[in-house]
Amino acid sequence: MDTVSFPDVTQLAVPIFIAAILGEFLWIALKGRGGRYETRDAVTSLIMGAGSVASGILLGFIAWGFFMVLWQITPLDLGTSVWVIILCFVLDDLRYYWVHRFGHRIRWVWASHVNHHSSQHYNLTTALRQTWTGTFTFMMVVRAPLVLLGFHPALVLFVGGINLVYQFWIHTEAIGKMPRWFEAVMNTPSHHRAHHGRNPRYLDCNYAGVFIIWDKMFGTFVPEQGSDPVDFGLVYNIATFNPLRVAFHEWVAIYRDMTQPGLSLKQRMLYALAPPGYSHDGSRDTSETIKAKHLARQPQDSGTPGF
Amino acid sequence: MPLELLLILVVGGISAIALLLHLSGRSQPKVMTEPQAREAWFRQFPENPILELTLAKDGHAALVRTGDDNAPLGLVWSFGADTVARFLEGAKLSPCQQGLHLHLADFSAPAVQLHLSQAEAALWQELIESPSAPQPRAQEV
Predict the structure, then answer these.
(1) Which residues of B touch A11 (CB under 8 A)?
(2) Which one, A62, B23, B86, B95, has the greatest CB density within 10 A?
(3) Interface predicted TM-score (ipTM) of this complex, two decimals
(4) What's the pLDDT tens digit per position in B59-105?
(5) Beta strand pairing status for B92-96 and B82-87?
(6) Neighboring chain A residues of B68 at a CB cutoff of 8 Å
């Protein structure tokens, strides 16, 4: 019988999330700086967070079943010592980096992740604006190597939960910069603000979960620039607080694009699998064309971070 | 954590935060001046310079005509404390007591309620339904 079990840290952190949101709001209200709150935006984010937890409870068995099949296949078992947990955490953070990068570069995965970027605010409630449809991206396959290497599925999910809880506190404007050594190694509010920017400079950067070193290793790191304040939200901002529309709008857009008349099979597939902004007739902008057009308007930005 | 406790925490937490934000005045929609409306348009469409802009008296929305003769009218409007903008392609207009109601052909921006006076609503309806007509209240950039 398989007796390995770990706590669900994201559920346990719910009281801390609520207390921290109240704390951040009071800080902003008292100091008059450090971010913005808006009622409907915050409520939408919180409902998205609750829905994400519900989605995990309802659909979590799919990923769990997949991992347990792999666990039956693999002859390896690394156990659950402290060093194994630490190693699993680091490797899972590398896994997170790539899943997150796929989430911005493959429209099918972006359809799930886009809702996290759909707020024009950046506060602790934004951290909880999470997907309801992650299961349908099939990104659980990126975790398969960890299980096959001998990390127990319960451990893999446990460290993934810690990763998400870590990322909660970096969704704030109330913290400027952390100490230099921390900014060099860890994902911080500053690095993640840049990731949430819709400015051309900040598109497709800083995918890290916990360790920013992955972005530095793989060439996607862009430091937040004082000269280019982050404009939060989507390139094409949505205009709805309806959680159902927030959760499914990109899926609906993919469906509409793929079912247009007169497309080849390849074009239909590219509407789902190419980077966001792909269009068969070149009528839309991808992050590459947005950056190129920005440089055409602002050539002095050429060679600066993000360009 | 027991599911019942999680449910109480989530519902109670969301309700408390919503109440706190609303009572502290965080539910007011953004009011735009004309320069702010222009800025909000450029924020969304930096490649579409404004030829004419008509700002609603309440500052919650503005109609935009761009330099592109083939482009439909645009609309920039308050969305909570922020703004969004769209070209009014395929939009359906219906007058209502508060002004005009716009249904957009966009799942992520399904509708806009424009709060306009009777005279203002009549003008906006004319502008939207006859986009090529002369605009007496329009202002040059």
Answers:
(1) 1, 6
(2) B86
(3) 0.89
(4) 999 999 998 888 889 999 999 999 999 999 889 999 999 999 999 99
(5) unpaired
(6) none
Confidence of residue B132 (pLDDT cuts 50, 70, 90): low
Domain ranges of chain B: 1-28, 34-129
Cβ of A38 within 8 Å of Cβ of B20? The answer is no
Ranges of residues in chain A with a pLDDT under 50 are 1
Distances (CA, A) of A181 to A188, A205, A214, A220: 11, 20, 16, 19
